[in-house]
TrEMBL record, chains A, B:
It catalyses: Na(+)(in) + diphosphate + H2O = Na(+)(out) + 2 phosphate + H(+). It comes from Thermosipho africanus (strain TCF52B). Its cofactor is Mg(2+). This is Putative K(+)-stimulated pyrophosphate-energized sodium pump. It comes from the Bacteria. Keywords: Cell inner membrane, Cell membrane, Ion transport, Magnesium, Membrane, Potassium, Sodium, Sodium transport, Translocase, Transmembrane, Transmembrane helix, Transport. Homodimer. Requires K(+) for maximal activity. InterPro entries: PPase-energised_H-pump. The keyword Secreted does not apply.
Length: 648, 648
């Protein structure tokens, strides 16, 4: 664990340098600075209010754990929550400052703008991984008990749930609301300052795609490392434990190198997609090389093989996701728009469902091979492998919303159209990386859930199950239902909050004279408040569901029922998440494809049909789909904690 | 089994009387007779071509089984297929003759029309249940081995797959194609004879909703009885066996009484919904009463309890389905149409997903209680209970398409608008019974799959599973993916076939002068051929998938992998099927609600938005959703057969 501290310290220094470098840059003229500040404040106020909702929950849980497990468990839980909150808060603070700076850098060159926006993303990516391992080390030093790290992981999961669900509802309520009135009724272009919800929309990109995504992957990262450490120690002792630590360190240091390389190449870059891809692959190759050398030296090559499967399958899932959400597949989908919106929805749904096939087989392949080589430890370690370069992959992912925000600020501040062109080209790359990031988040969540399940089954004392015991099947049936029900809840939440938003926008346009002519400023704050309120109100029931269901099933059907619950929830959750993410991504890009002038271009019948697809895809890919990742991980970690408590 | 023969014989006599009574009725004037004949021929030619595709498959399988199991297995398989085919063929022959007769009866009174259309449905409902038990008895007498009945069940499953998938693709390709060009482009009303695809659309109702649904429930009926007989004999010997036989007989005889009661009340009926509901509930109450008396006499009241749970939960699932696809829920859904099609899709999706919650808990409740009382046998027997009154519930279900067809014929033949009013009111009731029928089909498929799984686990020799063996989870992951992939295949198939249909309709309108003015007759046959070809081409891959996946998993991961596969497929399949059926049903009725004059009525912005929902819902509820029922049952029965073969 001392290695975690040293690596963490190096990384912290690096993060601080990056952050200062970003803050040194000019945030532009008065208007861009002001816009950036409004977004900062909106995002900050959302996070603070979100904390107000879940801090009491966390503290209540900590007190509960204090009485039934002990003080160490409470502390571990609090460390897990606090570090995840810290990562989210700090990462977002920088991201919301990098947006105007990216817009201003874009007045100079594409390379400058790429450099600033990617630096902003890198702060988020590195902070998540660094605090992830530092918190883990701290928990270990405080508790001196590997198994208590499960409470650390539980804390991280809790934060992730609120951040992902709350952020997801916020971002889509604002987006859908802004689109419906702004684009459809008042005929305003995207990011027009006359649209009262325009700032809320930009805030949403940050709280959803930056803070939400970060908390999600923080949880996966921590959960997979925790599982691998426990299973490694269990089956291979010290040797297993230390191997996990090294793989994690190799991944983080390689990410640092990859980020530096990317930044060095960014300024002269003419092709942002290529630059980002190079950095990511380079970091992956470095990690694998280091792991190979390590396994060779300790004469345990199996470590390398398993990590290789994880890295490789993670990469393949990204590529498959790209294949399904761009190019030929999207062109075919766009073509159906000439027949009408219903055809777009049917074809897009079929596309997303079809994509579950290869991705599932890839995940299965990684699991089978890893299991054959290193048993359950192998399954967990391949998950660690897949997530090892999280530092850079999350950076690439978080860069997207910053570029998107920069475009919005450029538009609202009335900068030279050339600036918007640059930010648009960055944003387009961001859309692809976002789709790949979602595939990666799902794949890693699936592997993490599997690793946690392996952990659960190792400690649940149900090594021998009668397959004809129907409680396994019943647990699976109820578990399989939860992702569907959970998605219904989040979709309803987006719908309700969007409705409130639409009403508010309509009210402002009607009651505040001169909004549409640009003579008076809309009340941005009011829209931010509505999105915040809508999101906070609706994130409690899903959280309760995720915690209560394993507990209830345990008392009804025993550990075997909980095992079934986890299997069912993971299976149907992974499929639903893949389907929703890829359908949503494909619809988004089909709309863009038509907007490029195909099948009649903007304003045509085909365009309107693809807008319907895109609007349906919004909650699919940005709210319900990603929230499922958390649901299955939180249920798994809750089950593990439950088992350790019940065993006493 | 001799009881099956006696009851079957009584029922056959009754069916023949019913059939002759229908054929005695006038098929109306020259035009209605002619239209009915075209539909008959279209449906018949589709079935014959369908048989051409799957007879070779069945025979190949029979020969294969002859070599590795023996002649008895082959014969059982052939009996299962032949009896299912016979039931579908005969039931549809009568249904397609009852349509014009219903239209003509509607010129007299609502009661007459209800009587004829329900008689047509009753022939289908009774034929399916009667041939189901007669085939079972025959198989038993030929093989003298209870376990070989699994091959009988496999034969029925095969036919069901082709009938449901093929019929589902056919009906929606014709429907969607006819709607897109007819309603949207050429502004023709529903069922207008100038629409070249109008006959194909009417044929589709029969091959999809009559023959397809019949084969689906034939499979469930046979599968649940088979499982209950095997498990009953295994755990309780002769006593268990005979109890199942009696419950089945009580159900069938009660259905007969229920049908007679309904027919007696039909002629004077002013409220068809009430009349049908009364008959169904009456049959259920009779079955329960008879079962109670029987269990009391043999001093084994547990039989009654378990059957009661099955009947009761089956009824509740129907009511919940009705609740989600009508009334307040649908009005709220219709209200979102004022915001546009995307909101209709999102809200409808959320509605369908939400509906999985209660239905899953109800199924779980029935299983838990039955298991507590009678173990695995209880689970299977409650499935038999749910399906015991299939005779009348399928009659109510099959009556819908007949009334729908009658309306089409009345419209095309230019009968008095009052006739159409009567058939429309019958059709409206049919839509609700169809939605409830779908809920029932899913619920019973879930219980049948569970019963088959119990059967599988009892013979698979994996009574002791290590929960940490990842092959269980992997199997579940792959199994959970299949319903999604399967749905993608069937949705693509509908899309492709509908595209071909659209092109053909456009071609005819362009090339045959006078079609739109009604001066010349369109080439109906050509459209029928296109729908047939589209359906037949696309039903092979899904079938292969359902058979190969358990076999492959067995060789890769052993029986535990197959167990996981069944759990995963059932869990995600049931959820997907419930979601698709209820979203589809709600969209359909939301459109009708707007058409009644709400939110602007026909032709309004809101109406167009609900039409999008309805069109998306078509393949959801009539092709992909129902096909999943078959997939999970066929996989389960294939696994059982596989186990008996492997055990030697």
């Amino acid at each position: 664990m001392v290695y975690f501290l040293i690596t963490g310290a190096i990384s912290v220094v690096f993060i601080l340098i990056l952050a200062f470098k970003i803050l040194e840059k000019s945030s532009g003229n008065e208007r861009t600075t002001q816009l950036s500040e409004i977004i900062q404040k909106g995002a900050k106020s959302f996070l603070l209010q979100e904390y107000k909702v879940f801090f009491p929950v966390i503290f209540a849980l900590a007190i509960f754990l204090y009485f039934i497990v002990g003080i160490k468990a409470s502390i571990a839980l609090l460390i897990g929550s606090a570090f995840s909150v810290l990562a989210g808060y700090f990462g977002m603070a920088i991201a919301t400052r990098a947006n105007a700076r990216t817009a201003w850098a874009a007045t100079k060159s594409l390379g400058e703008a790429l450099s600033v926006s990617f630096s902003g993303g890198a702060v988020m990516g590195l902070t998540v991984s660094t605090l992830g391992i530092l918190g883990l080390a701290l928990t270990y030093y405080v508790t001196k008990d590997i198994e208590l790290i499960s409470y650390y992981s539980l804390g991280a999961s809790f934060v992730a749930l609120f951040a992902r669900v709350g952020g997801g509802i916020y971002t889509k309520a604002a987006d859908v609301g802004a689109d419906i009135v702004g684009k459809t009724e008042a005929n305003l272009p995207e990011d027009d300052p006359r649209n009262p919800a325009v700032i809320a929309d930009n805030v949403g990109d940050n709280v959803g795609d930056v803070a939400g995504m970060g908390a999600d992957l923080y949880e996966s990262y921590v959960g997979s490392i925790f599982s691998a450490i426990v299973l490694g120690s269990l089956f291979f002792g010290e040797k297993g434990f230390i191997s996990v630590v090294f793989v994690v360190i190799f991944g983080l240091l390689s990410s640092l190198v990859g980020i530096v390389t990317t930044l060095l190449r960014a300024k002269k870059s003419a092709d942002p997609a290529k630059t980002l891809r190079f950095g990511t692959i380079f970091a992956g190759v470095l990690t694998l090389t280091a792991t190979f050398v390590y396994s060779y030296l300790v004469n345990w090559l199996n470590i390398f093989y398993v990590v290789f499967f994880g890295v490789f399958v993670g990469l393949l899932i990204g590529l498959i996701t790209e294949w399904y959400t761009s190019g030929k597949k999207v062109e075919n989908l766009a073509k159906t728009s000439t027949m009408g919106p219903a055809n777009v929805i049917i074809s897009g749904t079929a596309l997303g469902m079809e994509s579950t096939f290869i991705i599932t087989l890839l995940i299965a392949l990684a699991v089978v091979l890893s299991y054959k080589i290193l048993g359950l430890f192998g399954v967990a370690l391949s998950g660690v492998g897949m997530l090892s370069t999280l530092g850079i992959s999350l950076s690439v992912d978080a860069y997207g919303p910053i570029a998107d925000n920069a475009g919005g600020i450029a538009q609202m501040a009335g900068l030279d159209p050339k600036v918007r062109e640059i930010t648009d080209s960055l944003d387009a790359v961001g859309n692809t990386t976002a789709a790949m990031g979602k595939g990666f988040a799902i794949g890693s969540a699936a592997l993490t859930a599997l690793a946690l399940f392996a952990n659960f089954s190792a400690i649940s004392n149900v090594s021998s199950v009668d397959l004809s015991n129907p409680y396994l099947f019943l647990g699976a049936l109820i578990g399989g239902m939860l992702p569907f029900f959970f998605s219904a809840l989040t979709m309803h939440a987006v719908g309700d909050a969007a409705d409130d938003m639409v009403e508010e926008i309509r009210r402002q346009i009607k009651e505040i004279p001169g909004i549409l002519s640009g003579e008076s400023t809309p009340d941005y704050q009011k829209c931010i408040q509505i999105a915040t309120k809508g999101a906070l109100k609706k994130m409690v029931l899903p959280a309760v569901l995720a915690i209560l269901s394993p507990t209830l099933l345990y008392f009804l059907f025993g550990p075997i029922g909980v095992g079934g619950l986890l299997i069912g929830a993971t299976v149907s959750g992974v499929m639903l998440a893949i389907f929703m993410a890829n359908s949503g991504g494909a619809w988004d890009n089909a709309k863009k494809f038509v907007e490029e002038g195909h099948f009649g271009g903007k304003g045509s019948f085909a365009h309107k049909a693809t807008v319907v697809g895109d609007t349906v895809g919004d909650p699919y890919k940005d709210t319900s789909g990603p929230s499922i990742n958390i649901l299955i991980k939180l249920m798994a970690i809750t089950s593990i904690v439950l088992m350790t408590i019940v065993r006493g």
